[in-house]
């Protein structure tokens, strides 16, 4: 005869929640292009669904066999291990499968052997202590190791730590006198477990949603071929950097360049070769520039680099270094050389980003007129502003640009 107790109802509810979380994570795995951590979490909550269903069935109509009890108890620890593996996978850390398999095997022995010699209290405590070990590791993976955590990651880490603390308390109660069997102990267990287990699962879904949103934002701001910022991404990043530089009264320069005779490269070789050239040039610029510099592909073969806390003459030196590095690239067949022309302009505090880019474009035009494969520094025709790295007054009077 089936007798559905309150304990069994909660276990069946947890089984249903786990199954729904598993399905949601499987869907996220498909939507996000097969990210492995979503699949690992889906498997974890699928195992959790089976575990809670078996425990609910035991509490209502199905007397446990030894194998069923050991398996259901062991599954609780396996879920904790898989959750930890998924979090490590998400941030690109080593999965350490041998360590995880060893932990699962040891926990299985610690569950099975005491139960078979009539040590049920110790057996029931093992999965709780496995959560105490693995959930804090997962939380540290989210917010530690020098990473800048998002709000969703911080909330997830807090819930994982709360779940670990709760599990440690329950495990301790199991050990001392099986206190979870008292009315107060059962109340703590049956209230805290569903809330924390469901909360941990929902934060997994939120993390994946956050990852998807970040991926969409990146797609909208990054050029897929060169992985440099596209025009929209460059403008947004540059405007923020420019506002910060104005507040701190730091000099800035903008560097604009494009590849010489790029159309001829596509015509003489192929568009695939042209794409390889663009990708190689972008990689070269990253190596020669700083991490804090905003680097973007403005269109076609034209690129821009916003140099924070750098005066124009120092920017010219960087442009020359990048130009020389591009000239040494071996990308095209038959030893054909890739060259680029550069225009450099200071970013004055009373000018917009568009003004500075226009000035750099004028200097770039002069570089092409002068024979290409060179760097030209923009020079304003008016009197030099003190402290802003302007070029000499003589050069200013000679036109809109001066050969660097």
TrEMBL record:
Keyword Transcription listed: no
Matches recorded under SMART domains: GGDEF
Catalytic activity, EC: 2.7.7.65
Every GGDEF domain range: 250-380
One MF term in the entry's GO annotations: diguanylate cyclase activity
Keyword field contains Hydrolase: no
Domain of life (superkingdom): Bacteria
Record's keyword terms, sorted: Membrane, Nucleotidyltransferase, Transferase, Transmembrane, Transmembrane helix
Reactions this protein catalyses: 2 GTP = 3',3'-c-di-GMP + 2 diphosphate
Name of this protein: diguanylate cyclase
């Amino acid at each position: 005869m089936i007798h559905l107790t309150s304990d069994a109802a909660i276990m069946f509810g947890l089984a249903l929640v786990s199954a729904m979380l598993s399905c949601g994570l499987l869907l996220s795995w498909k939507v996000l292009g097969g990210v492995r951590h979503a699949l690992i979490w889906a498997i974890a909550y699928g195992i959790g669904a089976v575990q809670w269903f078996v425990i609910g069935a035991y509490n209502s109509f199905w007397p446990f066999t030894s194998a069923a009890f050991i398996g259901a108890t062991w599954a609780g620890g396996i879920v904790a291990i898989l959750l930890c593996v998924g979090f490590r996978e998400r941030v690109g850390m080593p999965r350490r499968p041998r360590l995880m398999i060893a932990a699962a095997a040891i926990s299985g022995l610690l569950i099975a052997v005491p139960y078979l010699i009539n040590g049920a209290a110790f057996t029931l405590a093992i999965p709780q202590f496995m959560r105490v070990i693995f959930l804090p590791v997962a939380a540290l993976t989210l917010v530690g190791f020098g990473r800048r955590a998002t709000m969703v990651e911080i909330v997830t880490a807090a819930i994982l730590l709360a779940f670990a603390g709760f599990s440690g308390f329950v495990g301790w109660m199991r050990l001392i006198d099986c206190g979870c069997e008292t009315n107060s102990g059962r109340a703590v267990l049956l209230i805290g477990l569903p809330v924390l287990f469901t909360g941990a699962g929902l934060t997994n879904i939120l993390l994946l949603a956050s990852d998807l949103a970040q991926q969409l934002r990146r797609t909208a701001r990054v050029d897929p071929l060169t992985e440099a910022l596209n025009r929209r991404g460059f403008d947004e990043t540059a405007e923020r950097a420019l506002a910060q530089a104005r507040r701190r009264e730091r000099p800035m320069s903008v560097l604009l360049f494009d590849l010489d005779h790029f159309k001829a490269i596509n015509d003489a070789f192929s568009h695939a070769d042209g794409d390889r050239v663009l990708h190689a040039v972008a990689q070269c610029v990253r190596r020669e520039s700083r991490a804090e510099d905003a680097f973007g592909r403005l269109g076609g073969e034209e690129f821009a680099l916003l140099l924070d806390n750098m005066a124009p003459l120092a920017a010219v030196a960087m442009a020359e270094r990048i130009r020389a590095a591009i000239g040494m690239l071996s990308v095209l067949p038959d030893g054909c050389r890739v060259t680029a022309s550069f225009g450099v302009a200071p970013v004055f505090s009373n000018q917009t980003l568009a003004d500075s880019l226009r000035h750099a474009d004028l200097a770039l035009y002069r570089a092409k007129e002068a024979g290409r494969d060179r760097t030209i520094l923009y020079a304003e025709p008016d009197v030099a502003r003190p402290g802003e790295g302007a070029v000499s007054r003589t050069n200013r009077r000679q036109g809109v640009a001066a050969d660097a």
